[in-house]
Amino acid sequence: MNAVVSPDDVKKTPEQAFFESQKLASKARDSKFEALFYRQLHQVTARIHETENLEQIMLEASQDICRLLNADRLTLYAVSEDQTAIVSKIKTGLNSSSDLKLPISPQSIAGYVAFSRTLLNLPDVYDEEALKQIHPSLNFLKMVDKRSGYRTKQMLVAPIMEGSTLHGVLQVINNKSDEPFGELEIDGVLELCKTLATAIRQRVKGVAVPAKKPTKYDALVSDGLLTDDELKQCVQDARAEGNSVEHLLMANYKIRPLQIGPSLSKFFGVPYEPFNAGRIRSEMLHGPLKREFIEEQGWIPLEESPEGLVIMCMDPEAVRGSRVVPQVFPRMAKFAYRVTTQTEFQETLAQLFGGAADTSTIDQLLADMDGGPIDDGNDDSLESAAADNELVKFVNKVIIDAYNQKVSDIHIEPMPGKLKTGIRFRIDGSLVPYVEVPAHFRAAMVTRLKIMCDLDISERRKPQDGKIKFKKYGPLDIELRVATIPSAGGVEDVVMRILAAGEPIPIEKLGLTPGNRTRLEATVSKPYGLFYVCGPTGSGKTTTLHSILKFLNTPDTKIWTAEDPVEITQKGLRQVQINKKAGIDFALVMRAFLRADPDIIMVGESRDKETVSMGVEASLTGHLVFSTLHTNSAPESITRLMDMGMDPFNFADALLGILAQRLAKKLCDCKESYVPTADEFKLFVTEYAEELRHSKAWKADYAGEAKKLVDSWMQAYGEGGQIKLYRAVGCDKCGKTGYKGRIGLHELLVADDAVKRLIQERARVAELFATAVEGGMRTLKMDGMEKVMMGLTDLKMVRQVCIK
Questions:
Q1: What is the pLDDT, as a whole number, of residue 755?
Q2: What is the pLDDT of residues 645-674, one digit of tens each?
Q3: Got the DSSP string for 749-800?
Q4: Residue 549 burial by CB count (10 A; 0-12/13-18/19+): exposed, middle or buried?
Q5: What's the mean pLDDT when you consider all of the chain?
Q6: What residues form DSSP beta bridges with 172?
Q7: Torsions phi, psi of 690, nearest 5?
Q8: Which H or E run includes 156?
């Protein structure tokens, strides 16, 4: 027998496991039993604090204390009014009760403990010789046993003290294991005595008169925040509903945590620690701890101070008594305990360990901010306002809501004068209003964001850009790229791009048509060459590149990437973050890569001639190079690169292909299919074939080629001899818009011999387009129209993002 919790105990509650383990001999108990013991001790001390007087302690808490210590009975004594005796209010065993008054002297065991103020752990109270060794006058009062027929044997007796003041004696009788009480039980009794000292001081005036019910919330009455009757009613309602008193105080009486905190401080005698929205997670303190452990234990380490490690908790006595904190931080010599409210504990827990930090709505937070700082333009006052808890929580809430709603960009748009500041979210490519903020908060809000990304708060005339590592301020492990731009009226706009780290999407889930996917995989599987992905900002270029790299990422391949920023990480890649302030740009990193034995190189963006030239050079010397361009179409990308001064012959030799892409809104599942009319379908075919008609085959036989096209569609997408199109409907899931998510539209130009020849001849874009289409390229619009027939999007969305 060496384990406290056997395999059969897996389904048992911690309480059941504890009482099962108590049946074992003390030597057979291990560290798990100790943890369960302190957990039960925590619950018992909480029960004591909920009582109104000594009688209630004995009635409601005594059985819990006996079960905790595996004892048969206990007696609680309080010091008499004249300080000469101790009086037991109620003696509990099974059902027995009586009053007993003992002088504070060595003539009795409890009296001796009160007299000497020392703990006694007696294996057998009938061992008179052992008692005489403790004190010549010490005796056990056998008349109590004779009168009741009960046999007392083991006894653990401790003084109830607060500082040097004696409040009473706790006497625990008969270990049910029929052995002396162990070290664990002694520790438990000592901690119970500390709790009882506070309870007796608060509940007893002298000996016999119970005080008015002391609660953690009495100071709210004395401070005039509610009446005594209201507090009593609140406590009764909380017990009846199984709810916390704090919750009802806040819900029914509008008492705020900042008002409850000082009351807790007076009750426990330790300082109050409110929620601090600017608190930053410390990996040294918080990294090794799990959220579940912290939540179960009920304490959070905050920071080191001259007083010791600051511990925030809801019940300082229970946490101190559990002795878990020194075990977790054995190198800390001192600990400074701070009490906080349940609400602020949960907020701090979520802030430092993740989770839903604030269940308040954005409107509630705005209401809490009402009447806040005035925009006076003073840097010091703005910085002070920016650190205000309510404003900090508001800014965090905006970012958390944006992340949860899958927002790509947050736009903060202040207006001059007394007009409100608008905040809009870009969701699935479209801007939607989020909330409006009163004018007097605009400067403080912008200042708060500047502080978070370490920008100059005094500079309001020039654009600035920075980055927020939100993990330092909230529960999400994300980064935000921030740009501030001065705008008309002396205000500053702020745009934040959410950079959520993630895994690469498998190439088969990019939304490529089967034909494009086959051609893409064949193109990028070449041993060397240059491949570009092009499109506007936010079109998914980086996502596509990482999907390609995932496809090529094998143990025998060395892949280097230079990115700004590193958004997607994957095992096997060596990724470098561009840092312009430190002089680390794409060209510098590219030169370094060429000396680092690469097989594949990915450059986040080809912005200048030097970077493009080095990419061409690297591809011609046996490396596979990937990069992105901000261009509209694949053929136009070739012209743009030639305009940068590329040698047409070297560039033609190096180029493997170019993939242009856009993101179109994806139809929600509530979409509706329909069969287009003959005229609608004819227009659909004409629009699709707009670029095809320039090819030789279509010029020679337009009608024949159009029939072949329709036949291929019928084979691929037809149902019952008909081609169906789809349109948006709208439901609760998509917010009545008819669209949810986005789908990629792709235009893949493969640099075959015909295309390479045109590059060498510096051909016009139109010639490149026609040749690429003849070689199998499908334009962005053609790809989108095929996805219309697949039911992924509709023609309206395709036309919205594609010109041709």
A1: 93
A2: 888 999 999 999 999 999 999 999 999 999
A3: EE--HHHHHHHHTT--HHHHHHHHHHTT---HHHHHHHHHHTTSS-HHHHHH
A4: buried
A5: 83
A6: 74, 156
A7: -55, -40
A8: strand 155-162
Residue indicated by tokens 């009750």: 267
Residues forming a β-bridge with 410: 425, 496
Identify the top-confidence range among 283-292, 625-634, 685-694.
625-634
Locate 455 and state its tokens: 């920008």
Cβ atoms of 85 and 101 closer than 8 Å: yes
Buried/exposed code over 770-804 (b: 16+ C-beta within 10 A; e: otherwise): bbbbbbebbbbbbbbbbbbbeebbbbebbeebbee
800 phi and psi angles, rounded to 5 deg: -70, -30
Q: What are the residue ranges of helices labelled H in 417-506? A: 442-452
Summarize the confidence of residues 257-279 as an average pLDDT.
89
Residue labelled with tokens 């395999």: 7
Mean pLDDT of 44-59: 71
Distance CA 527, CA 624 (A): 6
Instruction: Evaluate whether 480 touches 497 at the Cβ level (below 8 Å).
Output: yes
DSSP one-letter code for 211: P
Structure token pair of residue 88: 């037991």
Are residues 96 and 222 in contact, defined by beta-carbon separation less than 8 angstroms?
A: no
**Side chain identity at residue 242, one-letter code:** G
CA 158 – CA 61 distance, rounded (Å)? 17
Alpha-helix runs per DSSP H in 242-341: 245-253, 257-268, 283-286, 291-297, 316-322, 324-328
